[in-house]
Amino acid sequence: MMLVTVLDSFKTSLFVTGVLAYITYYKRYYGQIPKFYAKPNGVFSNFLQTHVKTISESYWPLYFMPSGRYQTILATFLPAPTNHVIYEKETMTSADGGQFAIAWAGEPGELSTEKILLISPGLTSATKTNYIQSLIIEMTERGYKCVLIVNRGLELPLLTPKAYCATHIIDLDSAVKDVKRRCPEAILFGVGISLGGVILGQYLSATRDRSLFDAAFICSSPFDTVASAASIEKWDNWLLYGYHLTRSLKSFYQKSQDVFHGVVDHEAVMSSTSVREFDASFTIKTFGYENVDQYYQDAKMTEKKILSIRTPTLYCSADDDAFIPVDSTPYETICKSAYVAMILTSGGGHVAHLQGASPFDTPYYVTVLADYLQAVYENPEELACITEFEGELFST
After folding, report:
1. In DSSP terms, which residues pair with 244 in a beta bridge?
2. Is the pLDDT of residue 216 over 90?
3. Mean pLDDT score of the chain
4. 26 by DSSP, 3-state: which?
5. What is the pLDDT of residue 395?
6. Is 308:395 a contact under the CB 8 Å cutoff?
7. Average pLDDT, stretch 388-394?
8. pLDDT surpasses 90 at 315
9. Measured between alpha carbons, how far is 74 from 64 in angstroms, rounded to an integer?
């Protein structure tokens, strides 16, 4: 009997020790205030620190799974909300003859619409993707009219042998113009997720002060696509993410393979074992690049591109996002820009940022997004000062 008591006491002590050790580990590496990068004393920097309180508060990654690697996987497999979004889709035709769709959550925006959220989604994300549905439900409840770009070939058949890629902004440009034409008085916010964030960043840079967005938010999106591609090639990242992404891309191609007859080598595409190989055998062939390195270099958000942005833009990333090596982000350039700022969290993964005790709670990046857009909506006159006092610094 005494032996049993001793063993029970030992088990309890071991359990308590384990719990305390985990709490110590968690508090050492997580539960940190995000690192903030912005132009010192800049109008946009001061605006964010004054009005967006969440960026100055600690981010507490999911208590039982703080690692971004596992959060990324878990977030992918979380079920979509039970109250599914009902969309009204519209077919759009771009100048090059390609077609894509914009999907309005509920009825389309109209003249009386006050604030619109236009979402540029991740690589193969579409209307039924779980994080898209969760984001739209959350932001709709907060009073935003949400509209999603559904990239070519995902939910509408391809009409031309050209799909979409990181440097292809023509569809986003068409969508923005159509939304603004329909709702000319609405404040228009842009949200880019992962690849969609790269595309949004390219658009903001290319259009400069002609951008139709009043503000933008970009999450889990690399600045350096060269480094991002190399990171996903690493064996562990390839096993966890690259392999599955490649399968999704090949499935996308197979749905419309007849359209690409004579443009790509079918066998080469189908034998791709990585995203890089798929881009080398498919993407660059349809977008006219000489090689995959040229494509990745063209997609990179260089200093010139970043400093060309004239729309208040907040980036949100995690320091353990496999798609964004920490040392690949141009922090110094961000701090030169009057219009671009970034928060970097300890933990959070890729398009995850789960927090607290439940993976079903609102993700951290959505909380930041909501606070940021509300601040812009309520204080537009403060951001107007960027153009007046700081824009001239980067006018060349």
Report:
1. none
2. yes
3. 91
4. helix
5. 39
6. no
7. 50
8. yes
9. 12
Residue 117: pLDDT over 90 = yes
Tell me: pLDDT of 275 over 70. Answer: yes
Catalytic status, residue 168: no
Alpha helices in the chain, H assignment, sequence order: 2-29, 43-51, 68-77, 130-141, 170-182, 195-207, 225-233, 235-237, 243-255, 266-270, 275-278, 284-287, 292-299, 303-306, 331-334, 364-378, 380-389
Q: Which residues pair with 191 in a beta bridge?
A: 119, 217
Active-site choice (221, 231, 350, 353): 350
CB 67 within 8 A of CB 347: yes
Q: Which of 45, 120, 125, 194 is catalytic?
A: 194
Mean pLDDT of 159-181: 96
Residue 350 near residue 321, CB atoms below 8 Å: yes
The CA-based diameter of the chain, rounded to the nearest angstrom, is: 84
Question: Cβ contacts of residue 59 below 8 Å, gap of 6+?
Answer: 30, 31, 32, 33, 34, 345, 346, 347, 348, 353, 355, 364
How many CA within 13 A on the CB side of residue 172?
29
234 and 227 Cβ atoms separated by less than 8 Å: no
Closest to 33 measured CA to CA, from 61, 68, 57: 57
- Confirm whether 51 is a catalytic residue: no
Residues 6+ apart with CB under 8 A from 105: 85, 86, 87, 136, 140, 145, 146, 147, 148
Mean pLDDT of 164-186: 96
- Which tokens in the block code for residue 271? 């034998």
Phi/psi at 234 (nearest 5 deg)? -60, 145
Quote the Cα angle for 338-339-340, to 5°. 105
pLDDT above 60 (res 7): no
Query: Does 321 participate in catalysis according to the annotation?
Result: yes
- The sign of the dihedral angle between the CA atoms of 72, 190, 230, 238 is positive
Which of 220, 320, 321, 337 is catalytic? The answer is 321
pLDDT tens across 253-271, in order?
999 999 999 999 999 999 9
